[in-house]
Amino acid sequence: MIRFEQTFMNFLLYHQERHNRTYHFLILMDALISAAKHIEHYYLTGALKGNLGLAGDVNIQGEDVLRMDQIAQEITVHYLRASGRVIYAISEESDKIIPINMEGGRYFVYFDPLDGSSNVPHGLPVGFLFGIAKRNLEGLEDGHLRAGKDYIAAGMFVIPTGTFTLALKDAGTWRFHTDETMDFVKPIRMVLPGDTNEWELSFNPAHRHTYSERVQNWIEKNERKYVFRYLGALAGDFHRILSNGGMFMYPAIVNHPDPKKNRPQGKLRLMYEAAVVAFMCQEAGGMAVDEAGAPILDIQPKEHHQRTALYVGSKPLVDDIARVLSD
Ligand code: FDP
Predict the structure, then answer these.
(1) Mutate which of 268, 276, 305 to test ligand 1's pocket (most atoms within 8 Å of Cβ)?
(2) Is 216 helix (H, G, I), strand (E, B) or coil?
(3) Ligand 1 center to residue 233 CA distance, Å?
(4) Under a CB-based contact definition with an 8 Å cutoff, are residues 246 and 201 in contact?
(5) Backbone φ and ψ of 127, nearest 5°
(6) Residue 187, preceding bond cis, omega within 30 degrees?
(7) CB of 112 closer than 6 A to ligand 1?
(8) How far does residue 204's CA lie from ligand 1's centre (Å)?
(9) What DSSP string describes 78-144?
(10) For the chain, give me the number of helices (H) and strands (E)?
(11) Residue 116 C-alpha to ligand 1 middle, in angstroms?
(12) What is the SS3 assignment for 5?
């Protein structure tokens, strides 16, 4: 007997029907999955085809643009456009908001199509992260700068591992794997485990002495209780936290020996990185806070590429550091 697993589309179809929702969201998700598969193809063949290097440009954030950044951006915008369901998109790869379908679009999509750039030259895991909010369907269009708590879904593909994780508002966080036909199948509900023996801490230890004193003290006090892991790509590191529990953090850099390199606002981008993982974490029973110990999902963005510090993972750990941060 052949064993068939439930496909992602089948799972989503039931979900939409059960909640009396339209199929527009399915069409959007189909576009995002097509984009992710297409990016994965370029990534897998990237070393052979010479696509894992620099593109020769510098982006608005002053970072070198990779060839794969451009490819991933082009692919994603193509599929979002083809879906007809998106009004505006905001991308890490574009300094301006991207108008897509101003008449018929229903959704705002915030995305980073290739996150974790230090892994790219090695072909090691990177992330495609996205958050989705819905426009106001009656009356005037109501702005695209939404707080994470107003997202209707958020997810990530860890490329090229064939895993896809999606959180749906008030309906949990689900993980899918690719099967032999390259379909995402077998929904597994992700709930952060309570067993502290499995918990992991994840942060860049090279930055540790640049964190605030209170964060350094917290690390000193707690690090020996947990396993330490750091891949250097948010999606991959958060993927582990979702499975094993613990906490990923990218604190504010405030004590750098070269003050020009301080990042008091944090490094990660709010709309398409921090709020995305915070949303997935909340739906899996966890939480996320910023450098003031305030919930990431409550931050109202003032601009597209706003940065934030991030502490995300199991509630008891995030609660504990939030108390220290807000003291
Ligand atoms: P990167 O700059 O390599 O693209 O968003 C940026 C991000 O990667 C995250 O994916 C990752 O968690 C973090 O920054 C890595 O930064 P460090 O190299 O400072 O550790």
Answers:
(1) 268
(2) helix
(3) 6
(4) yes
(5) -120, 150
(6) no
(7) no
(8) 9
(9) HHHHHHS-EEEEEETT-SS-EE--TTT--EEEEEEEEE-GGGGGGT--EEEEEEEEE--SSSS---S
(10) 8, 17
(11) 5
(12) coil
For position 141, what pLDDT does the model report? 60
Q: What percent of the chain has pLDDT over 70?
A: 98
Run of H or E including 221? helix 213-222
pTM of the model: 0.96
Sign of CA dihedral 223, 195, 191, 180: positive
Q: Is pLDDT of 103 > 90?
A: no
Whether ligand 1 lies within 6 angstroms of the CB of 172 is answered as: no
* Chain mean position to CA 217: 28
- Percent of the chain's residues with pLDDT above 90: 85
CA distance 98 to 225: 45
Residue 211's SS3 state is: coil
Question: Is the shortest distance between the CB of 118 and ligand 1 below 6 Å?
Answer: yes
State which ligand 1 atom lies nearest to the alpha carbon of 127.
10
Query: What are 168-223's pLDDT values in tens digits?
Result: 999 999 999 999 999 999 999 999 999 999 999 999 999 999 999 999 999 999 99
Check: CB of residue 283 under 8 Å from CB of residue 232: no
